[in-house]
Amino acid sequence: MLNKKIKSIYKYIGQCGLLVVSMLTMISPVQASEALPDTLRICASSDEMPYSNSEQQGFENALAQVLAESMSLPLEFVWSDKAAIFLVTEHLMKNECDVVLGVDTDDSRVATSEPYYKTGYVFVYRTDKDLDITSWKSPDIQKLKNIVIVPGSPSETMLKAVGKYESNFNYVKSLIGFKSIRNKYIRAKPTKLIGEIVSGNGDIAHLWAPEIARYVHNSDTDLQMVMSQQQYELENGDIVMQHYDQSIAVRLGDDALLQAINKGLASAQQKIKIILQKEGIPLL
After folding, report:
1. pLDDT digits over 113-126, tens only?
2. How many domains does the chain divide into?
């Protein structure tokens, strides 16, 4: 009698196992991936043009729309009143959103997608300046007085490398109103930076292309934009990179979402390229 009961229990367990297997085979890959969100929640700055703003006029707003459509997910912008440099630490890592656009591909704080574009730092100057600038080693660099850069950027490192840092110190500080960056992050508005070149107050600028391309191309004054070389080797052997891959960031461990984003980027590649070209960003 006991043996019959044991056999019945084993038979029941076996039937349950078959039922579980049958149910799993009926679940689609999308359903099985519970890590995928129902909505693509993208953190973005509410006032950091040309990247984004709350009116969705930035090129990253347009890129987000294309990505969401490619992934067949509704899009939700999670707006931040802080600068974009804080999106990862203040919002993504606090689970207030799931995605951040425009992150360097090698950012170790996050998991990053396949690069969706590559660009770099550019020289910008008035065409009537009649300059011959192809790199920081160009002789005409030494003839210039006011060079527009963003403090703390690779441009500042290069300014030091070519011996123009001290003579430009006060001018560069004036671009952010002599405020102490130790106490507060101060963003130099790209419109102001390009305005310095247009007015002639600045002789040349060396800036991140995506940040200023729109204002260079929309300027009524003819401006020249020249891509920097990929990298520069300093006298001590250190390498200063000038070209960077751009990716989409998710939290470390969000593998299913990252995989879905990579598929979405691949299928939307042509639309992404059109947006970037319309923005005037030089692509590498």
Report:
1. 999 999 999 999 99
2. 2
